[in-house]
Write a structure and sequence with these properties.
Number of helices: 11
Strand content: 15-25%
Distance between the termini: 35 Å
CATH superfamily of the largest domain: PurM-like C-terminal domain
Order of helices and strands: HEEEHEHEEEHHHHEHEHHEHEEE
CATH architecture of the largest domain: Alpha-Beta Complex
Structural class: alpha+beta
Radius of gyration: 20 Å
Oligomer: single chain
Length: 331
């Protein structure tokens, strides 16, 4: 199947149209209209088979997650998503109708609920399945939530359970039954079936916290999404804001399956595991109370506080702990 046949058959009408699109798929570039009272927010992530997802992950989940992780970046800025561009590098054996149909359905299932349009991209042949997504969004002028605004005495909060995706990934990779792996050691669908649906969903179908991110405009002082581990990503806020933090490990929300693990193992998944795509933000105590009053439908979890002395202090039930923070490393 030719590149243009793939595009027009599976991707041209995969998502809904957006009123800010002047010209979408079909030309050398897309044309977009930026609202006068907004700033454009853009981000890009690349996911590579065997590095960011196991080789046997279904095309639907690959597409869904590839877009979701970018929408999560927009959520962390308080932005409203608008459109995505997708670069798809396919091994020749995957350049077929069935793969592209499932992939396009995955794009539609993450884009449609948020009114996001696929406005362009590229397809090419590659030895390894690779997906690059650029996401575009809008935020009211001057209201983007960045990493550098945390203040002493702010409360540190997260938007949901931390560590579930890491547990799922490690269960896949550590499955002892050799019959559950192919000749290259990659997990097969049988090994994936042994995981709980909750953990698999957390790993393969993360849901970006876009509505919460938008609601936090004017409330949160700094924010980031948790992709490389809570410890490392919170550290990015601390570095950018030139402050320190105390993190209370017993307050970090976790799936009940994680709660059954020994503490050190649970904390490893929560602090260093990554792939959560929950929001981590700082907010003053007064604004947190006001936010909870204005938005009772959102549940957020206070897990620590910002302090003046730089560095990250970990405590458990009032006792200070020494725990190595080492999140995801790309190289």
């Amino acid at each position: 199947m030719s590149e243009f046949s793939l595009i027009y058959t599976h991707f041209k009408n995969a998502t809904c149209s957006h009123p800010n699109t002047v010209l979408g798929i079909g030309d050398d570039g897309a044309l977009s209209r930026v609202p006068d009272d907004c700033e454009l927010v853009s981000c890009l992530d690349t996911l590579v088979a065997g590095r960011h997802f196991v080789q046997k992950t279904c095309p639907h989940a690959v597409a869904f997650k590839s877009v979701a992780v970018n929408l999560s970046d927009l959520a962390a800025m308080g932005a409203t998503p608008y459109a995505v561009l997708v670069g798809l590098s396919l091994p020749k054996q995957m350049a077929n109708d069935e793969f592209c149909r499932q992939f396009a359905n995955g794009l539609a299932d993450i884009c449609t609920p948020f009114g996001v349009e696929l406005i362009g991209g590229d397809t090419t042949s590659s030895p390894v399945l690779t997906v690059s997504v650029t996401a575009l969004g809008f935020v009211p002028t001057g209201q983007a939530i960045t990493r550098d605004g945390a203040k002493v005495s702010d409360v540190i909060c997260v938007s949901g359970e931390i560590g579930s995706a890491s547990v799922a990934l490690h269960q896949i990779l550590d499955t002892p039954n050799k019959n559950n792996h192919d000749k290259d050691g990659h997990a097969t669908p049988n090994s994936l079936d042994n995981l709980s649906n909750e953990l698999m969903t957390a790993l393969q179908y993360p849901m970006p916290r876009l509505h919460l991110g938008q609601a936090l405009r004017g409330f949160a002082s700094a924010m980031i999404d948790i992709s490389d581990g809570l410890g490392q990503d919170l550290g990015h806020i601390l570095t950018a804001s030139k402050v320190g933090a105390i993190l209370h490990l017993e307050k970090i929300p976790a799936n009940p399956l994680l709660q059954k693990l020994p503490n050190a193992q649970k904390w490893q998944h929560q602090l260093n595991g990554g792939d959560d795509y929950e929001l981590c933000f700082t907010i003053s105590p007064d604004k947190l109370a006001l936010f909870e009053q204005h938005y009772p439908d959102f549940t957020v979890y206070p897990i620590g506080e910002i302090v003046a002395d730089k560095g990250l202090i970990l405590t458990y039930q009032g006792q200070t702990l020494d725990f190595n923070i080492k999140g995801w490393e790309h190289f």
